[in-house]
Amino acid sequence: MAASAVRVRGVGTHGAPSVPGVDPGGCLASTAPQDLGPARCGRTGRLVIGDRGRGQPAGKKGGSLTGPNPVDRGKPGSKIHVLTDAGGLPLVVAVSPANPHDSGAFVPLVASIPAIRSRRGPRRRHPATLRAGKAYDQPERRRFLRRRGIAVRIARRGVDSTERLGRHRWKVERTLAWLGGYRRLSPRYERNGYNFLGFLCLAAAITCWKKLPHST
């Protein structure tokens, strides 16, 4: 499990509600303003968001599911969260503003793991083991996994060496690199957080299709 920040490029202020199933508590999404008007044409080849009450200038960066990026001089950005299987195939993806802590998406991601068909017996709805970095080393996260019968393999702060984490983390980083290779995701062009999440889900589905074996 990991997260990656994405810079927002040339999007105007536009809100979207929280993502159902991924963000049930609304902790990853911002409040959606309801006073935005239709888009009107500005100069040739440009669009200006029609906000009658505020007079939103053209080209001002922002948008739903964005926040100041702490690693990019506070510029507006979004963070991509991904949970993969042992081979690096993306199982669950989510989007949040760039400034909240990565651990805020831990519970929604694990709770959204889809049922996976097994060779024998019923579908598996929980993994046997979950590995995560030191950012998720919190007692409540460990208790959440134990209640679901999932073995905890979260790196412990001040105990586990950072050199050993790379044996498993490189697979998640490779998955983030795969997703970052799609032009619609990096940088982010979408004003609406739903649209950006939709492209992210599509990229994850295409990635799984490319990596899974196909019958010839």
Automatic annotation (TrEMBL):
A biological process term (GO) from this entry: DNA transposition
Keywords: Membrane, Transmembrane, Transmembrane helix
Species assigned in the record: Frankia casuarinae (strain DSM 45818 / CECT 9043 / HFP020203 / CcI3)
Protein's recorded name: Transposase, IS4 family
Transmembrane segments: 193-212
Domain named Transposase IS4-like: residues: 71-205
One Pfam family per UniProt: DDE_Tnp_1
A molecular function GO annotation: DNA binding
InterPro entries: Transposase_11
Disordered as annotated region, ranges: 1-23, 47-75
